[in-house]
Write a structure and sequence with these properties.
The protein has 12 helices and no strands. Helix 1 runs antiparallel to helix 7 and helix 2 packs across helix 5.
């Protein structure tokens, strides 16, 4: 379960108030990471996570945002991309270290050292301060715009519409991946849709905490499993591209370990998906939107 306790709607506020409040919280946290002190990697990672949460927020209320959705979604996406190379190299090192630890295998040490050198070189590039400043400036502007975001339509219409679209895509990609489970790109697309649905359930968790939190936790695991598998895919591709610079025996061992781990992860992912993605999109969207609409009444009854 996530420790970001601000990423949810509050039943006592209107939908518009909730959207603006969550946006302000996430942008403010991202700005704190950009301008703060300490190691750069965790700060960059936090900024990228906040951008994904903001895009998840936008997707949930997309039917009510009108023309604002496209431009704001693109802006947060592009801000995250300012740091994608740093994150990719960090994940490469972590994935190699994880494989070596699980296998108890010292033969991967040359590759871990190579990945660490690539990561460190990236962190010392001269343009990083400029990227940090650009991201901060763009987020300051976005924070101002977010105070006036319109959310038109009834809460049920907007939330059900956003849920239906994103959850429907997660279901569709699950079925596609099930027909071709060795297709790395299909699983990558599926992972992204699952993550957005996870964000939506987190935003709505206060509507009915017990069942919603259980759903959030299982979706969190599914997202992590698919994310770990994607990291292995990226690792294999990166090593293939750099093959001439790396020991052949170590590369072969990584491929063996990665393939075995990927098989376990994909089996787990499809098992979790059967629990989370079996309901038809219209039914789920109406059900969860209904939870949210009835949340204030339920809270009043509980208090009484």
């Amino acid at each position: 379960m996530t420790d970001d306790m601000t990423y949810h709607f509050k039943p006592g506020l209107s939908l518009t108030e909730n959207v603006r409040q969550v946006a302000d919280d996430q942008i403010g946290a991202a700005l704190a990471s950009l301008t703060g002190e300490g190691a750069l990697e965790p700060r960059v990672h936090d900024v990228r996570k906040r951008m994904k949460k903001l895009r998840g927020l936008l997707r949930l209320v997309r039917p009510g945002l009108g023309k604002h959705y496209k431009s704001e979604n693109a802006e947060f996406r592009d801000i995250a991309r300012l740091f994608s190379d740093i994150r990719d190299k960090q994940v490469l090192t972590q994935t190699l270290e994880g494989l070596a630890e699980k296998a108890g295998d010292d033969s991967l040490s040359p590759l871990i050292a190579w990945a660490g050198e690539r990561r460190d070189a990236m962190l010392h590039e001269h343009d990083l301060p400029g990227r940090l400043e650009e991201a901060a400036n763009r987020l300051e502007d976005a924070r101002i715009r977010a105070t006036a975001w319109p959310v038109d339509g009834t809460s049920h219409e907007v939330i059900a519409g956003g849920l239906k679209k994103t959850y429907g895509r997660a279901r569709k990609n699950w079925r596609k991946a099930g027909r071709d489970p060795e297709n790395d790109e299909l699983l990558h697309q599926w992972r992204k849709r699952v993550k957005y649905h996870w964000y939506h359930c987190r935003l709505l968790r206060e509507a009915w905490p017990e069942p919603m939190l259980a759903r959030v936790d299982t979706l969190d695991e599914l997202s992590d499993v698919l994310g770990d598998d994607h990291d292995l895919v990226v690792l294999r591709a990166t090593l293939d591209e750099a093959s001439k610079d790396l020991p052949k025996a170590a590369r072969k061992r990584v491929a063996e370990l990665a393939d075995a781990e990927s098989e376990v992860l994909r089996k787990r992912a499809f098992g979790l998906a059967a629990q989370m993605l079996g309901e038809k999109k219209g039914q789920l969207a109406d059900r969860l939107a209904g939870y949210w609409i009835s949340a204030p009444t339920m809270a009043e009854r509980k208090a009484g």
